Amino acid sequence: MQWRTAGDRIQTLLDSCAAGGTAAYERAQQLVREVVGLYGAGLERIMQLGDPDLTERLATDDLVASLLLVHGLHPHDMHRRVCDALDRVRPYLGSHGGDVELLEIVPVAATGESTVRLAFTGSCKSCPSSAVTLELAVEDAVRAAAPEISAIEVVTAQPAAEPSVIPADALLARVRSNGSTVHANSWHPVPELAELAPGEVAGFRISDTTVVVCRVGDLPLAYVDHCPVCDDTLAGAQLRETLLGCPRCGTQFDIVHAGAGPDGTHLDPLPLLLRDGVPSVALAEPAGAGA
């Protein structure tokens, strides 16, 4: 069960109780509060055991950490949680030629929330769509680690020296001050990706989209199954070190640099991250789909 959607399911059930009248709805809400209070008290008792190793293990488990945050029991402050979240996505950012630095966390006195200010370094070579993949990776990681953050801001970086390189300040250009994004995306768990061996290439059909996944060392990378040179499928493609060769036209694409190919061509990268401990791919929702 994906715990990130549990809150939505609980709210749906509560809303359905409203059909039984005000009294039924209030009883359902009270039941939820009692259950939340009960497991909150249990978590507090566990955290009071004073075992440093256990505390750290609980704090770094995605599910438990989210529950500790709900009850104000997480042992790490916001700055450390954000830093740890950025560290977890740095290997992915590096695969697209970029990195990120936490500049500061600014409290918003009026609301009690905070704004995170980030600066990107490095660049995304030859691939405009890689900006979206980095945006999703960073925003998802930061908001999961620190849900009390109200906004993510990006400070303009120095222009890149190479004219063919996308400036680093464009990496999160689509992140708005309220934390929403221009592109609507849905995450799809694909547990089979965990079985992919280093150097292996596999194809997956995910929500009507064919995806090619390559694994370089410990890093899996996902791309849309489409060769921009011959306009054909990449089915049967082989990986040699970091180059993925199209089996039809023979074009080589550098998959650790956002799928860069010759003459400015590139594959279309897709965000692939561990979510709830399960490899998951983000795909754009059709126009008019849910937010």
From TrEMBL:
It holds the Pfam family NifU. The keyword Iron applies. Residues 187-281 form the Rieske domain. InterPro entries: FSCA_dom_sf (IPR034904), NIF_FeS_clus_asmbl_NifU_C (IPR001075), Rieske_2Fe-2S (IPR017941), Rieske_2Fe-2S_sf (IPR036922). PROSITE patterns: RIESKE. May be involved in the formation or repair of [Fe-S] clusters present in iron-sulfur proteins. This is NifU family protein. It comes from Mycobacterium lentiflavum.
